[in-house]
Amino acid sequence: MKIRNGFVSNSSSSSFIVAFPQRPKTEEETFQMMFNSEEDIETYGERLSTKEIASVVFSDIKSSKKYKSLSLKDIAICFENRYGYLIGSYVHVKDDGELETYSSAPDSEDFFGIDEELFYKIKNLQYEEREHSKLYYEMMHKLAEKIDPMYKRLEYSVREHILNEVRQTEEWKKIEKQYKKRSEFLWKKTKKAIKELSLIDANAFLSQFKDSYIAVFYYEDKGSCAIMENGDVFRNLPHVWISHH
Fold first, then answer.
1. Burial of residue 235, with CB atoms counted within 10 A of its CB: 0-12 exposed, 13-18 middle, 19 or more buried
2. Mean per-residue pLDDT over the chain, rounded
3. The pTM is what?
4. Which of 26, 90, 116, 201 has the highest CB neighbour number within 10 Å of its CB?
5. Which one has a higher pLDDT value, 36 or 224?
């Protein structure tokens, strides 16, 4: 039971919200919960045994705050990271401007986007913000062309000089003020919707695994940690994988 957002790259980090049957008290218990046998796992030229992986996980569990299972609030905060930008990940803008959801869009079984109305509200708000930003920069370039009609054909340094002139005009300052006001309004609405939906998702996750020990792990794609992030080390346990590329 995994959610994979984004794509694996040479520089990345991920968090994993994992449901253990109960809180592991030793490395051996951790190993027994995570794996069926001792073997090596190799990713990007790095290699760790399943025993070593279990040791890393148990060490991280011991170092976590108060060694307690995650609360509903903790899980919801983690889940918020999945909604950073839906456009381009799960949603495509067609030539006619219509929004189209990819076939890989999340469903309720993944504890992601359980409230469909909120999911599409976030998507539409993010799309509106993107279009708002596009218009902002288009207006900037139109003002630059008023100064020099050949603006787009000029060298980068010359274009930057003209843009600096644009930024000093009263007309642009008024546009920028309106842009920032609208952007802040959209962001506040988006953030509120993300918090609401993440809480719903987290509640569904916690309800299904209410008798489990739930922990969060953070790993980045460096050295042996590449295995922890990309080696599917929690494959035998219910978990949510959140990519922070």
1. exposed
2. 85
3. 0.80
4. 201
5. 36
